[in-house]
Amino acid sequence: MKLLIVEDEPGMAESIFKFMQTEDFLCEAVATLALALEKVDLFQYHCIVADITLPDGSGISLLHHLQRLKRKDGIIIISAKGSLEDKLEGLGSGADDYLPKPFHLPELSARIKAIIRRKSFEGSNVLIADGLRIDIDTKEVICNEQHLELTKSEFELLIFFMSNKNKVISKKALAENISGDKAEYFDSYDFIYTHLKNLKKKLSGAGYTDAIKSVYGLGYKFYC
Question: Which residue from 53, 94, 122, 182 has the fewest beta carbons nearer than 10 Å?
């Protein structure tokens, strides 16, 4: 799952980045409002952690920009000020949560996961579709009572499909979901075919056939 960190204090940004990587998030970090706006114009994220006070503006401006785009990315506002006014302004501008500095990284992680569960998975950490059961926290995948051993990329693709059931997903979107902003530098998305082929093979081996189908010229669709 993809996380964007918007924080201009290098030590704080690095701490969040490294900790959330250990929680299996695909992390990207920027230090200015301008770069954050550029990122959200190009990519979608499961959650964005944004400081209110940035060198070139306010994190609240990022919230307003996302609202204009009608985006559904989760948003947590962080601030060293810790004032009631900041909290009310952030939540009133569309933030899903507010966390004053200093804070404990495990608490930030828990809040991020709660937002993602609420916005992408209807509040549950267990996804169920027909004979398929996925535990987001433990990374356990059970298909027709068989445990599937998936790679990190295969698991991320499956989660992405499950959160976009019966929707056509482009190869570009799939690439970004497992590679982040690095995907824009790829000459092709051929590596996606390999991950998809392996995922489909494992699902079919457990009797879950034809779940992922190619939509000619557009991408892929997950049927369940």
Answer: 122
CA torsion 14→87→53→38, rounded to 10°?
70
Q: What is the pLDDT of residues 91-109, one digit of tens each?
A: 888 889 999 888 999 999 9
Rounded Cα–Cα distance for residues 107 and 120 (Å): 20
Give pTM, 2 decimals. Answer: 0.74
- Cα separation, 99 vs 18, in Å, equals 19
Write out pLDDT tens, residues 147-166.
Answer: 999 998 899 888 888 888 77
CA distances from 46 to 40, 43, 213 (A): 11, 10, 24
The whole-angstrom separation of Cα 163 and Cα 14 is 29
